[in-house]
Amino acid sequence: MNQAGETGVLLEHLFRRQAGRMVAHLTGLLGPANLDLAEETVQEAMLRALQTWPYQGVPENAGAWLFRVAHNAAIDAVRRRRLTAKKEEEAVADITEAAESMLERPDLEEHLRDEELRMIFMCCHPEIGREASVALSLKTAGGFSVREIARAFLAEDAAVAQRLVRAKRQIRERGMTLEMPTGKDLEKRLDAVLEVIYFVFNEGYTAHEGEDLIRGDLCGEAFRLVRLIAGSALAQPRVHALAALIAFQWARSPARVDQLGNLVLLEDQDRSLWDAWLISLGFCHFDSSVAGDAASEFHVQAAIAATHARAASEGEIQWGIILQLYDDLLLMNPSPIVALNRAVAVAKVHGPQEALAGIEALRAEPKLRSYYLLLAVRGHLLLDLGRREEAAGSFQAALECRCSEPERRFLRRKLGECEAEPA
Amino acid sequence: MPQYMLLLYDDPSTWQKVSPDEMQKAIEKYMAWTKKPFTVDSKRLGEDAGRVIRNTGGKARATDGPYSETKEVLGGFYLIEAADYDEAVRLAKDHPHVEYGGTIEVRVLFGQ
């Protein structure tokens, strides 16, 4: 378990991590219908730490201390619930036994991981909507608060709280359990979990004004969750593919924004700033992802990211391979967004003229009609072709679409380039 | 150097919605303050209402402590060294307890 250092300095995010594990554990003991009670119990244990540690110092095994106090709080909560004497004694005995066995289990880490996975898989039950699954996973397994989730998703606190209340009601009313689904259901559920994880990562990764720390925490949580699954018996090749994809993309974040907070395009990024540790983890997971024949979208996306990661400089990017991979991806997922990304690779391989032809075809797509990125890519290609006035018009139109402040600044910069005298 | 007693009153409801991450940050701030060189001693009080001893008709009688009407309860104390009230107040103002909505009462120890 996590230890506090001798200096009393706690490991970063110890409480958040520990809260997730404790909620999962106590939900197992108190039953998913009592998820609220499990959360309150955990909150109480943390409050107890706040009240005593500053005066008495951090206990030697801070993680175990929190678990012990939470077990006691759970027993108090059970006693307050006015169950029949028999039921109360049974519940108390269960918790007491769990508390004792925790001290002796040689496989404690695996056991806690297993409990956490069960929790996440329940949070991603198909009857709970995607948005609610995301909020619930972050709240229960991730140890995020309502306010933190709201801030990360630029939502109102009340809206997030409402979503959680509804999800918990569904858990109660449908009698959902922490049992892992089996067979085909397990496969489906795993897909739902991976989608939620990738959604969390993308939310954290998308550039937003302020670059709030909490957004980086979302990326970290997504990566932690996918690796948690990758390290378990549930690890399918596509789990590793998603882990690789997240690692490669996240590795770029130090290079993605310059010192002024402006967006830097992938091709202009200083690759020496990419996080080498994450890149190497990405390749580890990528190697594991190629086991078996099944290829998921995550596989292809990870392969594209790996091709970028392999190039030492912008000039060494193997655009031919990337284009081929986009062709594969388009077959699996014929979405206009994929087609738009493919157009960038087309420009690199066959030149801006051909890419532009592809883009013009996409402009009719209702999904992309007011998508700033389509207009931005179009402007970029027109500028490459020397059609400055049209390029300026495209960037201007992009500025009128919904986009974040760093994206807006980027578009204004490009607009400036259109107006500058050719060198 | 004169010693001052800092009495920390807290409002437990403050912490109900605080995230684990914020809770950890709060603990770290409290602990950092406890380790400051001017801190002589610090103790946390039990959560119960305690007992009150009163002279009732010439006899010492103990009753259960006063269930305070106010939300704030005395939660702990610090003994610190400071040159004068001004310095003691300046140091106490910097305590994270204030940042998190608690109240601190500063009293000088007599006869030093």
Task: Quickly describe the structure.
The complex is a heterodimer of chains A (423) and B (112). With 423 residues, chain A is mostly helical.
Tell me about this structure.
The complex is a heterodimer of chains A (423) and B (112). Chain A has 423 residues and is mostly helical. Helices cover 70% and strands 0% of the residues of chain A. Chain A has helices at residues 14-30, 35-56, 62-80, 85-104, 108-123, 130-140, 146-152, 157-173, 183-205, 213-230, 237-251, 253-256, 276-289, 297-310, 319-332, 336-350, 352-362, 372-384, 388-399, 405-419. In chain A, helix 2 (35-56) packs across helix 3 and helix 19 packs antiparallel against helix 20. The longest helix of chain A is centred in the middle third of the chain and has 23 residues, at 183-205. The radius of gyration of chain A is 25 Å and the shape is elongated. The termini of chain A are far apart. In chain A, 40% of the residues are buried. By secondary structure, chain B is α+β, with helices and mostly antiparallel strands. Chain B has a single domain, classed as Dimeric alpha+beta barrel (Alpha-Beta Plaits, 2-Layer Sandwich), CATH 3.30.70.1060. Chain B is built from three helices and six strands, in the order E-H-E-E-E-E-H-H-E. The interface between A and B is medium-sized, with 29 and 25 residues.
